[in-house]
Design a protein that fits this description.
By secondary structure, this protein is mostly beta strands. The protein contains twelve helices and 59 strands. It has five domains: about 5-200, Jelly Rolls (Sandwich), CATH 2.60.120.260; about 210-275; about 290-580, TIM Barrel (Alpha-Beta Barrel), CATH 3.20.20.80; about 585-645, Immunoglobulin-like, CATH 2.60.40; about 670-940, Beta-galactosidase, Chain A, domain 5 (Distorted Sandwich), CATH 2.70.98.
């Protein structure tokens, strides 16, 4: 029987943690590709595999061959094994640390390779295995490893035979370490990162560390040899012998410093015992001084995203090309930082961040979030539940090992500027020891959001302020909390980083501009990381993307994994463009014809083009703007302006908005006749049939056109960020509420209603004064309203809606566009005149929801080629091919039926997007007020196109 190493926290037979590097043969040419090293032998490709329902059934697995084949790296779920499961917080197995279920799926991987016996040593390296594995070679036990996202290296020299050698790996779904890996992600299994062999001399360098410092314009590079023998090191044409376990400092005059803006790297060549290691070093410093994060002496801002390892076709397995594409796209979107949420990334990603320039917060593989969901435990507070694991001595070693894995493996990457102890795991003695361990290993600043749980438990003490973590870290605080609770806290002197903000689930996030305004205006605010980079939609046995619950699994967290600022295939959304806007490295300001262009970067000049757009065409001005400097242009008359660098638009600003002259229709003295509860109003050009029982206009006829049911609307298809409030809306039946108590008044040229809106005989929700005034070719609807039920969190919207034939498909408008815009997310767009088709107005989010609104329109026009409907005066409008009901009733975009109409909404007010799925409610000024008023003009023009 296998020893139950999987119910302990130790690894067996694994080499000590070391910095990531790939040795080359002596005399080799420098290469960025590790595959070009003759000492590197990839084991990626087809392996044999046999699944077992339980590890107990896998006894003597190493004496057998796999029955089927699987590609390595990969996740077994994509090969039909086990099942797909997305869980955010809860542990997906019974909580009984360190024990895991007896039915613990196990997978026997096997592969053969040829080896000719020699004096050299041979190592096998696994860059990522979920969750743990036993390793056998030629039927002999080599070792056992856990920590899913570590590099597990084994010396297999003494297990080799001449000729054919057989590797056997048993991968388990769960282990004791799984209690520390309860991250918000799909729970995949398998050898999901690269596997390879390294041929090395009998004596070889084991580890090294490179430290840098800056004195004036001089760079100091210190090489610390952690090998017992001497090595030959060359840096910037300076060559030295570094003694065993010794160190040497190289002085580089007029050094080119590394930053995300200018990722300058120096080549380091390390030679020892017939090997050469090509290492790149970026000269930089990063430290917290007087409550400010200083990078190379400058108070930088981090404009970041949280990056999970995920791609729809392969899950946690990401190819080099996937990683490269992500990094290049981040640069294009003005992102300068990423957090490796919530575990260390592939070493290839760190290399790319070094090369292309991204600041990295490298996070340890540590999260025990599921403890807060243990409702059956007799514990009074969430904070104490969070402390179950960090206060458990059994896991002390594991906490320390996970920090050592993170720091030792990634210490030589220039891009790593902050260490993170983990994510959402409370605080306790294990974290205190983990923090001390990181301090011993490296001097870079340390972050950990879970420290804040001390403060929530404090009873007048100051323990929270004394913990030597370098920065305050928070998830989704409100801007009010930042401005008041944090900045006005007299005991707090550490800078603040938002490790997560701007929850980008579905149509979102809102209020990014509010956060950036605060961050840019205060040196103690470091910046933040939007949650998250890309939707985690799974593509499996179908062209349709799926989320939690789509695979028949019992326990899941639905579509919470569809929360990326980009789609799963990295396609942009409106939120993507809003993020790019607020992260712009160029700030434009315009007043009285004077344009100021400020370079927000601290290290790199802006070298590019300022492009002026006007009715007369475009004008390009080449310029160079020094870091933190400004360039001014006098007498600028352009409509909008762009900053272009390397053929990419990095910033834009609208200077002038196109003027619009309101449509004018003479007042009408209509003819009114009443039949039953219907008031017929004829203005000669337009005929209206008004329902006197509810204030709706049941029919509007102009020429040969008749459209139906212009009515009050106070609902929207819930956003993903409405997930916490929509139950409140449904509780009070806001989606089904109708006018009940109606008082009407018919005048010479108007009809007015006093309405109480509610559901059946329940308490009224809203009172509305609806007043129609008639023009020859249209109406003015004046709406005054008040929310009567103070238990309603806020109204999604209020205004008018009408359902039109789908032939009304041609749209023209002057508003913020062409993408969807809302009161808390419109700055990326330009207010201009746009033409389009209604079918293109709805953005196809994986989970259908509110979409397609345009903020602050001057007008909108819908046409069916023969007739036109015009709307004016509203705060926002929406013309989309689906009804609110259709969007609300369907769980997936691919389940939406064919469009059956054009659904037009003209809003007096529409609430913002916010981040409330994880964060605070939108600010009051971004919510539909509890009472307000507005005027909406609608015109109905016959026989025009």
């Amino acid at each position: 029987m296998l020893k139950k190493y999987y119910e302990d926290v130790l690894s067996i037979g694994v080499e000590p943690f070391r910095s990531y590097y790939i040795p080359f043969e002596s005399g080799a040419k420098e290469s960025k590709k590790r595959e070009e090293s003759q000492r590197f032998i990839s084991l990626n490709g087809p392996w044999n595999i046999t699944p077992y329902k339980s590890v107990a059934q896998a006894d003597m697995f190493y004496t057998k061959e796999g029955k089927n084949t699987i590609e390595v790296p990969s996740c077994v779920q994509y090969y039909g094994y086990d099942f797909f499961q997305y869980v955010n917080i809860r542990y997906p197995f019974p909580f009984d640390p360190p024990h895991v279920p007896e039915d613990n799926p196990a997978y026997h991987y096997s592969k053969h390779f040829d080896w000719q016996m020699s004096e050299e040593k041979l190592y096998i390296l696994f860059e990522g295995v979920d969750s743990c594995f036993y390793l056998y070679l030629n039927g002999r036990f080599v070792g056992f490893s856990q920590i899913t996202h570590r590099i597990s290296e084994f010396d297999i020299t003494d297990f080799l035979v001449d000729g054919d050698n057989k590797i056997d790996v048993l991968v388990l779904k769960w282990c004791a370490g799984s209690y520390l890996e309860d991250q918000d992600k799909w729970r995949f299994t398998g050898i999901f990162r690269d596997v390879y062999l390294l041929k090395r001399p009998k004596k070889h360098i084991t580890d090294f560390k490179i430290e840098t410092d800056i004195v004036g314009q001089t760079g100091l590079v210190t090489f610390l040899n952690r090998y017992e023998g001497q090595v030959f090191v060359t840096i910037n044409k300076q060559a030295r012998i570094v003694a065993g376990n010794g160190k040497e400092t190289f002085v580089i005059d007029d050094a080119k410093l590394w930053s995300a803006e200018e990722p300058n790297l120096y080549e380091v060549k390390i030679e020892c015992e017939g090997e050469v290691i090509f290492q790149k070093v970026g000269i930089k410093t990063c430290k917290v001084v007087d409550g400010i994060l200083l990078f190379n002496g400058q108070p930088i801002k981090l404009f970041g995203v949280n990056h999970h390892d995920f791609y729809p076709d392969s899950g946690a397995t990401m190819s080099y090309q996937n990683l490269l594409d992500d990094v290049l796209l981040m640069k294009e979107l003005n992102i300068n930082a990423l957090r490796t949420s919530h575990y260390p990334a592939s070493p290839l990603l760190y290399e790319l961040c070094d090369e292309y320039g991204l600041y990295v917060m490298s996070e340890a593989d540590l999260e025990n979030h599921g403890t807060v969901a243990l409702e059956e435990w007799d514990i009074n507070t969430v904070d104490n539940l969070f402390a179950i694991i960090p206060e458990n001595e059994f896991f002390e070693r594991a906490y320390i090992e996970r920090q050592r894995s993170n720091v030792e493996e990634h210490k030589n990457f220039a891009s790593v500027i902050i260490w993170s102890l983990g994510n959402e795991s409370g605080w306790g003695p294990n974290f205190e020891k983990a923090l001390a361990e990181v301090r011993k290993m490296d001097d870079r600043p340390i972050q950990y959001e879970g420290l804040y749980h001390i403060k929530t438990r404090m009873l007048g003490g100051d323990e929270y302020y004394k913990v030597p973590i370098d920065m305050v870290s928070m998830m989704y605080p409100s801007t009010d909390w930042i401005a008041n609770d944090y900045l006005l806290d007299s005991m707090e002197h550490r800078p603040l980083i938002l490790c997560e903000f701007g929850h980008a689930m579905g149509n979102s996030p809102g209020e990014l501009a509010d956060y950036m305004e605060l961050i840019n205006d205060n040196p103690r605010l470091i910046g933040g990381f939007i949650w998250e980079w890309a939707d985690q939609g799974v593509k499996y046995k179908s062209d349709n993307l799926k989320y939690g619950g789509d695979f028949g699994e019992k326990y899941h967290d639905s579509n919470y994994c569809i929360d990326g600022i980009l789609s799963a295939y990295r396609k942009p959304k409106a939120g993507t463009l809003q993020m790019k806007k607020i992260y712009e490295p160029i700030r434009f300001s315009y007043s009285d014809g004077k344009l100021s262009v400020f370079n927000r970067k601290y290290f790199a000049p802006f070298i590019g083009i300022i492009r002026f757009h006007s009715a007369d065409g475009t004008k390009d001005v080449e310029c160079t703007i020094a870091p933190q400097d400004e360039l001014s242009f006098e007498m600028v008359s352009a409509d909008y302006v762009e900053a272009i660098a390397n053929d990419t638009v990095v910033a834009l600003s609208q200077l002038k908005i196109k003027e619009y002259k309101r449509f004018l229709s003479p007042n009408a003295i209509p003819i009114s006749t009443k039949r039953g509860n219907i008031l017929n109003v004829d203005t000669n050009n337009v005929k209206y049939s008004i329902n006197m029982d509810n204030g709706s206009i049941e029919a509007i006829t102009f020429g040969k056109e008749t459209i139906s049911d212009l009515h009050l609307n106070y609902f929207r298809a819930p956003l993903d960020n409405d997930i916490k409030v929509k139950e409140n809306w449904y509780k009070y039946h806001l989606d089904k509420a109708t006018p009940r108590r109606v008082i009407s008044d018919i005048g010479k040229d108007y009809v007015s209603f006093e309405l109480e809106i509610g559901f059946l005989d329940e308490r009224p929700l809203i009172s509305v004064n609806l007043h129609y005034s008639f023009y020859e070719e249209g109406i003015k609807a004046e709406i005054k309203y008040k929310v009567l039920n103070e238990e309603i969190y806020f109204l999604p919207r209020i205004g008018l809606s009408i359902n039109l034939d789908k032939k009304f498909s041609d749209l023209k408008y002057l508003a913020f566009g062409p993408g969807e815009t809302y009161c808390d997310s419109y700055e990326y767009a330009m207010k201009d005149e746009y033409y389009g088709k209604v079918i293109d107005e709805y953005h196809h989010y994986l989970k259908p929801q509110e979409s397609g609104s345009h903020f602050l329109p001057e007008y909108m026009r819908l046409s069916n080629g023969k007739s036109i409907i015009i709307g004016e005066g509203m705060q926002s409008f929406q013309a989309i091919p689906y009804s609110i009901q259709t969007l609300s009733d369907n769980g997936h975009d691919w389940e939406l039926p064919e469009s059956d109409g054009t659904y037009l909404s003209l809003d007096v007010s529409m609430s913002g997007l916010g981040s409330n799925a994880c964060g605070p409610l939108p600010k009051a000024n971004h919510l539909t007020p509890t009472e307000g008023s507005g005027e909406i003009f609608m015109y109905f023009l016959k026989g025009r196109s």
